[in-house]
Automatic annotation (TrEMBL), chain A:
<dbReference type="GO" id="GO:0007018">
    <property type="term" value="P:microtubule-based movement"/>
</dbReference>
<keyword id="KW-0505">Motor protein</keyword>
<keyword id="KW-0243">Dynein</keyword>
<keyword id="KW-0206">Cytoskeleton</keyword>
<dbReference type="InterPro" id="IPR005334">
    <property type="entry name" value="Tctex-1-like"/>
</dbReference>
<dbReference type="Pfam" id="PF03645">
    <property type="entry name" value="Tctex-1"/>
</dbReference>
<keyword id="KW-0963">Cytoplasm</keyword>
<dbReference type="GO" id="GO:0005868">
    <property type="term" value="C:cytoplasmic dynein complex"/>
</dbReference>
<protein>
    <recommendedName>
        <fullName>Dynein light chain Tctex-type 1</fullName>
    </recommendedName>
</protein>
TrEMBL record, chain B:
<dbReference type="GO" id="GO:0045505">
    <property type="term" value="F:dynein intermediate chain binding"/>
</dbReference>
<comment type="similarity">
    <text>Belongs to the dynein light chain Tctex-type family.</text>
</comment>
<dbReference type="GO" id="GO:0007018">
    <property type="term" value="P:microtubule-based movement"/>
</dbReference>
<keyword id="KW-0131">Cell cycle</keyword>
<comment type="function">
    <text>Acts as one of several non-catalytic accessory components of the cytoplasmic dynein 1 complex that are thought to be involved in linking dynein to cargos and to adapter proteins that regulate dynein function. Cytoplasmic dynein 1 acts as a motor for the intracellular retrograde motility of vesicles and organelles along microtubules. Probably binds BUB3 as part of transport cargo. Required for the efficient progression through mitosis.</text>
</comment>
<keyword id="KW-0132">Cell division</keyword>
<dbReference type="GO" id="GO:0051301">
    <property type="term" value="P:cell division"/>
</dbReference>
<keyword id="KW-0995">Kinetochore</keyword>
<comment type="subunit">
    <text>Homodimer. The cytoplasmic dynein 1 complex consists of two catalytic heavy chains (HCs) and a number of non-catalytic subunits presented by intermediate chains (ICs), light intermediate chains (LICs) and light chains (LCs); the composition seems to vary in respect to the IC, LIC and LC composition. The heavy chain homodimer serves as a scaffold for the probable homodimeric assembly of the respective non-catalytic subunits. The ICs and LICs bind directly to the HC dimer and the LCs assemble on the IC dimer. DYNLT1 and DYNLT3 compete for association with dynein IC (DYNC1I1 or DYNC1I2).</text>
</comment>
Length: 107, 116
């Protein structure tokens, strides 16, 4: 049985769908952002686990209002380069930025 | 087929230990600085790399993911969330929030146990 691999394109599509589904067409709203970030990570995670691969997953989501402020993010990973992987999707509309990262660690 | 999971008492993520490690790294990199667009990239890189190095030096059989976000303080709203699919008995996470007059910094550590 070949070892499962973290396929970036596959994961990227899953993330994009989750973002569009949660916030596509919406303007930044302080009262809704918490449920949006939760919805994006949960939707992404459930679609990833449905792939049925022997991986542990971590999904993070950042939503920031557009008002000119600078935002910088970085990540560093200590893992197995041959089997583990990550995928980050940056999305924006007129009023907000959304950055989602998914990390997959082979069992 | 039976699966044998050895119960190792040491395989619990120590969040306090990780919290202290990360806090020191943030302080040493951002401590007295003001938000500077030209430097932020090297700051976030330094924070994640130093944190990771110190965590690995603990010598535990874990894989680590460290993420860092630095934001200029301008009144904009920033919201973050994360969700994890893992072994809740051995794996863990720790988030450190830090700020000074001109910027906010949020660092997340995710530790995933390596099954031998």
């Amino acid at each position: 049985c070949p070892p499962a691999s973290f396929l970036v394109d596959e994961v990227s599509s899953i993330i994009k769908e989750a973002i569009e589904g949660a916030i596509g067409g919406n303007a930044y709203q302080h009262s809704k952002v918490n449920q949006w970030t939760t919805s994006v990570v949960e939707q992404t995670l459930s679609q990833l686990t449905r792939l049925g691969k022997p991986f542990k997953y971590i999904v993070t989501c950042v939503i920031m209002q557009k008002n000119g402020a600078g935002l910088h993010t970085a990540s560093s990973c200590f893992w197995d380069n041959s089997s583990d992987g990550t995928c980050t999707v940056r999305w924006e509309n007129k009023t907000m930025y959304c950055i989602v990262s998914a990390f997959g660690l082979a069992l | 087929m039976e699966e044998f999971h050895p119960h190792n008492d040491e395989m619990i993520f120590n969040a306090d230990e990780a919290h202290n490690i990360v806090k020191e790294c943030i302080e040493s990199v951002l401590g007295k600085a003001d938000y500077n667009q030209n430097k932020v990239n090297q700051w976030t890189a330094a924070i994640v790399e130093q944190s990771l190095t110190h965590l690995v030096k603990l010598g535990k059989t874990y894989k680590y993911i460290v993420t860092c976000a630095v934001m200029q303080r301008s009144g904009a709203g920033l919201h973050t969330a994360s969700s994890c699919f893992w072994d809740t008995t051995t794996d863990g996470t720790c988030t450190v929030r830090w700020e000074n007059r001109t910027m906010n910094c949020i660092v997340n550590v995710f530790a995933v146990a390596i099954i031998l």
